[in-house]
Write a structure and sequence with these properties.
Number of domains: 1
Shape: elongated
Structural class: mainly alpha
Low-confidence stretches: 1-24
Distance between the termini: 59 Å
Strand content: under 5%
Number of strands: 2
Oligomer: single chain
Helix content: 55-70%
Largest sheet: 2 strands, antiparallel
Radius of gyration: 19 Å
Length: 185
C-alpha cells in the first residue's frame, strides 16, 4: 500500500510531537554551557536546587512548594484541568533544573554527584506524572511515592550525598549557601 506524501508528513509530525512530550535522558548542554570551574559549577548547582524547591519543595524536610501543594489540592479536589496545568508547570521547572544539573556536571569533580541529582529530578518527574494520572482517574495510575521509588529516586538521593562527600572541592572554595535555597555547593 502506497502512502501519499501528505500522510507521510502527518505521520512524521505525529511521531515528532509524541517524542517531544516524554522526558528524555539527561539533558546535554553544549560545550560552551558546561561548568569549567567550581564557581561556574556553584551557579548551576544553586540554579538546579532553586528549580527543585520551586517545583517540589525541600525534599530534605518534606516541605512542599506552592506548586506541589497546589497540585496535591487539585488532585484531592478532582480538579483535572488545574492538576494538568500544575503538573505541566512543575515538570517544566524540573526540566529546567535538569539542564542546570547537566551544566554543573561539566565540572569534573561534581560529575558523580550531579549524575545522582539528575536521577532525583527524573524520579520527581515520575512522581508528578503519577499525580497527573491520579487526577485524571487513570485506572492504571500508580501511587506517586511508589513511582518516585521505582524511578530510583530514594537510591539516588542517598547516593548523591555519598558522592558529595567524596567530591574534591578546590582549596579556598567558598562555603556560602546558595542565595535562594538553604543548600551549599
Amino acid at each position: 500500500m502506497s502512502r501519499s506524501p501528505s500522510w507521510t508528513l502527518a505521520i512524521a509530525l505525529i511521531l515528532l510531537v509524541a517524542g517531544c512530550g516524554a522526558p528524555s535522558g539527561s539533558p546535554s548542554p553544549s560545550r560552551a554551557q558546561v561548568a569549567a570551574s567550581f564557581e561556574e559549577y556553584s551557579v548551576a548547582f544553586c540554579s538546579a536546587w532553586d528549580s527543585m524547591f520551586k517545583a517540589i519543595g525541600n525534599p530534605d524536610t518534606g516541605s512542599d512548594s506552592v506548586l506541589s501543594k497546589s497540585l496535591e489540592d487539585a488532585v484531592a479536589a478532582g480538579d483535572v484541568a488545574t492538576a494538568e496545568r500544575l503538573a505541566a508547570t512543575i515538570t517544566t521547572e524540573l526540566e529546567a533544573g535538569r539542564r542546570q544539573v547537566a551544566i554543573a556536571a561539566g565540572w569534573q569533580p561534581a560529575g558523580p554527584m550531579m549524575t545522582q541529582l539528575d536521577r532525583v529530578f527524573v524520579a520527581f518527574e515520575a512522581m508528578i506524572a503519577a499525580k497527573r494520572a491520579a487526577a485524571a482517574h487513570d485506572p492504571n495510575a500508580v501511587d506517586p511515592q511508589a513511582a518516585f521509588e521505582r524511578a530510583g529516586g530514594a537510591e539516588a538521593w542517598f547516593a548523591m550525598f555519598d558522592a558529595a562527600k567524596a567530591m574534591q572541592r578546590p582549596a579556598g572554595a567558598n562555603d556560602a549557601q546558595c542565595a535562594t535555597v538553604p543548600i551549599t555547593p
